[in-house]
Amino acid sequence: MALLHCAKIQVDSVYSRAVLTFLKRLMSITGMSEQWVAARIKQKGDNKCISWRNLKDIVLAHPDTKKRVDVSALSIYALVVFPKALGHVDEAVTDLFNRLDKGVTPVPAILAETFRSLSACWRTGEERFIGCA
Fold first, then answer.
1. Where would I find the DUF7745 domain in this sequence (predicted)?
2. How far apart are CA 44 and CA 41, in angstroms?
């Protein structure tokens, strides 16, 4: 909670999808311009994403310390909790991450996605957990 700056979590509010576009969410989280973000968004399968390397550049060079911490936290959150596209941060992760600033707890969504992924692994007979589906 300290890493994500979410001390005031609303326990009675659950995660729901916001209406901001991927581009707008990335602009808000990173503090970068629309042109910068638009040039770095890629399509991976059915999802839009941004490369971890692009976010690493922000962490190393952004003048605003809060933005550097936010981008670091987003990267950890995406690469560890929801590793869908190797080396990339997925659109769904930025949506969930963006909701943290509004005090909405992501715990029910994380538990539901984990349960769904574990159930899918069990049904297909796979022996490993691949993160959220």
1. 23-132
2. 10
Contacts of 131 (CB under 8 A, 6+ apart): 81, 82, 83, 84, 117
Residue that is written with structure tokens 């869908």 in the block = 84
Give the predicted TM-score (pTM) of the model: 0.62
User: CB of 74 within 8 A of CB of 66?
Assistant: no
Q: Give the C-alpha separation, 48 to 125, whole Å.
A: 29
The model's pLDDT over 51-81, given as tens digits with 9 standing for 90+, comes to 989 999 999 999 999 889 889 888 887 877 6
Residue 80: CA atoms inside 13 Å, Cβ hemisphere, count? Answer: 6
